[in-house]
Amino acid sequence: MAKMTMVQAINTALRQEMEKDDRVIVLGEDVGRDGGVFRVTDGLIDEFGEQRVVDTPLAESGIVGTSIGMAVYGLRPVCEIQFSGFSYYNFHQIESHAARLRWRSQGRYSVPMVLRAPYGAGVRALEHHSESKEAFYAHIPGLKMVIPSSPRTARALLLSAIRDPDPVIFFESKALYRAFREEVPEEEETIPLGTSQVVQEGKDLTMVAYGAMMRPTLEAAALLKDRDGIDAEVIDLLTIAPLDDELFTQSVRKTGRALVIHEAHRSFGPGAEIVARIMEKSFFYLEAPVARVTGFDIIVPLFSRENSYLPTVTRILTAAHKTLDT
Amino acid sequence: MPRIQIDIAGRLDHLAILDENGWLDKTLEPEIPPELLIKLHRIMLLSRRFDERLLNLQRQGRIGTFGPIKGQEAAQLGAVALLRDSDWMVPCFREMAAMLWRGTPLEGVILTYGGFNEGGRIPDNQNDLPIAIPVASQLLHAVGLAWAIKYRQKDDIAMVFFGDGATSEGDFHEALNFAGVFQAPVIFVCQNNQWAISIPRSKQTRAKTLAQKAFAYGVPGIQVDGNDILAVYTAAKEAVDRARQGGGPTMIECITYRMMMHTTADDPRRYRTEEEVEKWAKRDPLSRFQKYLTVKGLLVPEKIDVLEKEVETEIQEAVNRAEKQMKNLTDPLHMFEHHFADMPVNVLDQQQELAQELAEQKEEQSNG
Ligand SMILES: Cc1ncc(C[n+]2csc(CCOP(=O)(O)OP(=O)(O)O)c2C)c(N)n1
Ligand SMILES: [Mg+2]
Q: At what angle do helices B285-295 and B229-244 cross, to 10 degrees?
């Protein structure tokens, strides 16, 4: 299959799954005729019609609440919330019902739905269009929270998310949507939810990241190698919740040093959980305090300053050296 | 036990005073002082030209994404014309004309779209909230402001703007309900510009009008030709007078049209026809108002030329000032400000962390 952008890869996953499974329907604001504001659902309405690719009224609680009902009935709604920064009207439906119906009905009902939403900074957008608030969702019992880092992982993870028997929040990095192309295999490929991947092996330092932050992290890892001969092991989480701590535990036990990178705010961000797991499981293997490179504890500034908010290669390198020099 | 019809609603009017060519229905002409008409025209022209200039700046990469207002000037100015300084104006994100009327400096608008938080600063003497991007969320704030005004027994009011799409959000319905229950002096001004990005009004609601939704909450509603500033003014005056006298809220649905793209990131050719846009171009609020003023003897073509030049200069000077400010505002440490009255320790630490990093980088560069 051709090299694809992340937008094309997600579009492909939706198309292939819709061809295969008529329970899958796509709904949201502007997902039909317009093909979504990022064109992720481009062409789906022509192929599958207005019954399965639905332009809804402007109401996020409506989109998610009705998706829950459809999912309980046996459909597989994949709803798009135009920007994750507008997912708060629907937060209540997710937290109070999507995540709880299986539990509340003691196993009688389940909510196999996916909520897709673009997240993250770096595209010179307006307020509310640059947040990285995955921790809100990762904090909710009964919910899975997934963030792919490339076209190929996006396609594979979205297929798993749609087939998952429980509700999945699927964040897509706007900064990665068209950042690069990657070979996406024609044959079906899935990645089990809740599994991370080692994307680069190393022995000196463990770097844990996900989503858009994989790019600066890998760039920093390459510079560490070239300039200082340091072998960093880089782990891509892929799923934020439930968190797979297996790989980074093994890795930290080997390297003794760890660095966590995310663009979400630092306090109570996903990094806090990762560091806690490292303390719980690998404390006696550590050679240095675990470090975090993150977005600051401030509202993501309007775009003229967003690059100062985001973790950069320089900031990652500084933190890596500090950890290595301890 | 009979089955009888319940008389639920008040009556719903559609009000238009100027026809498509700017000819007046004299029986409906509102009494507006000439100075006010002239000022309204000046700000309408200024907003039109400023909107065009912003689009240019965006296309040249000098500002970021923005949502043009072209076509909606009368639907905003006819309503805010009724406000006093002590009243409150609550915009969504497409109310540039209303904001300029209220006193927002042009450079504030440029700064915001140029990606600087500093643009959001509202001048101290102006009782307006900043733009609100989450659709429909600001309606409740306006109701709260109005409720507080009532609590203080003032005869001020709050006026809130929102789009046709906003009427689908729950917050719209909660706002109308609260306003009705508490008889808050708030005016809901709906900018029904026929589109919510790619979704036409007909797909937003099965209802024939948006104004009728007010009736469900016991609130009066009226629909007006939003491209006719006299009709907007007349409806707003009735609503504002009623609110000031303790008569509670009103919803005004302005029938208008989004002449341009949703924002500069949008391509409307994907979902609407050029013919539709051309049809609405014939109902242009600015030329209709100019026709009215000319027939009335308040405007002559030479005066329009003079005004065009004045407005152009005003805009150019604002662009110059804004671009100069943007050059001086590059320090990223500003982004830590205005989160709390007192900066908490973690934020302070992080600000210092970044300051140190920037200082080290500077040193490296000068050594390097
Ligand atoms: C809660 C929320 N959901 C989605 C968006 C994205 N969005 C911005 S404007 C818009 C359409 C708004 O339509 P309307 O209310 O008619 O206002 P208009 O843009 O036409 O002025 C959408 C969907 C948003 N800003 N807020
Ligand atoms: Mg609209």
A: 90
Q: Which amino acid is at B123?
A: P
**CB contacts, 8 Å: B266 with chain A:** 37
Instruction: For residue A172, give the H/E element and its range.
Output: strand A168-173
Question: Cα–Cα distance between B204 and B202 in angstroms, integer?
Answer: 6
Q: Which of B138, B197, B203 for a ligand 1 pocket mutation test, highest count of atoms within 8 Å of Cβ?
A: B197
Residue ranges of the alpha helices (H) in chain B?
Answer: 34-59, 73-80, 96-102, 106-113, 138-151, 170-182, 201-204, 229-244, 274-281, 285-295, 301-328, 345-367
Both B263 and B189 in one domain: the answer is yes
CATH class of the domain comprising A197-325: alpha beta
The pLDDT tens digits along chain B (368 residues) read 889 999 886 789 999 999 998 899 999 999 999 999 999 999 999 999 999 999 999 999 999 999 999 999 999 999 999 999 999 999 999 999 999 999 999 999 999 999 999 999 999 999 999 999 999 999 999 999 999 999 999 999 999 999 999 999 999 999 999 999 999 999 999 999 999 999 999 999 999 999 999 999 999 999 999 999 999 999 999 999 999 999 999 999 999 999 999 999 999 999 999 999 999 999 999 999 999 999 999 999 999 999 999 999 999 999 999 999 999 998 999 999 999 999 999 999 999 999 999 998 888 888 86
Enclosing H/E stretch for A220? helix A214-228
Question: Quick one: closest CA in A to B270, which residue?
Answer: A34
**CATH H-level, domain A2-184: superfamily:** Thiamin diphosphate (ThDP)-binding fold, Pyr/PP domains (3.40.50.970)
- What gap in Å lies between CA A77 and CA B173, rounded to an integer? 26
Residues B193 and B272 in one domain: yes
> Three-class SS of residue B192?
strand
Q: Indicate the domain borders of chain A.
A: 2-184, 197-325
Contacts of A88 in chain B (CB under 8 A): 134
Claim: this prediction has a pTM higher than 0.80: yes
| Residue ranges of B 94-113 with Cβ closer than 8 A to chain A | 112
Alpha-carbon span B148 to A56, nearest angstrom: 35
Q: For residue B64, list chain A residues with Cβ-Cβ distance below 8 A.
A: 124-126, 303
Picking from A62, A297, A314, the nearest residue to B347 by CB comes out as: A297
A97 tagged catalytic: no
Q: Tell me, what amino acid is at A306?
A: E
> In what helix (H) or strand (E) does residue A209 lie, and over which residues does it extend?
strand A205-209
Strands A197-200 and A3-4: unpaired
Catalytic residue among B41, B53, B201, B262: B262
Residue range(s) defining the domain that contains residue B50: 14-327
User: Do B265 and B345 reside in the same domain of the chain?
Assistant: no
Structure ipTM = 0.97
Q: Which atom of ligand 1 is nearest to the CA of B164?
A: 16
B135 lines ligand 1 (CB under 6 A): yes
- The Cα–Cα gap between A44 and A54 comes to 10
Cα gap A74→A71, rounded to integer Å: 5
Burial class (CB in 10 A: 0-12, 13-18, 19+), A286: middle
